[in-house]
Amino acid sequence: MPYSSDVFDADIEAFLRTHDAQSYLDLGPGAGKYGRMIRRVNPDALIAAVECDDTYISYFELEGIYDVVARARIETAFDALPDLTADVVLIGDVIEHLKKSEGIDLLNYLIYRCHYCLVVAPQKYVQYSWRERAAEAHRSVWAPRDFEAFGAEVQVRSSTLLATLTGYLADPEAEFGYDFVRPEPLAGLV
Question: Cross-referenced Gene3D superfamilies, in alphabetical order (predicted)?
Answer without folding.
Answer: Vaccinia Virus protein VP39
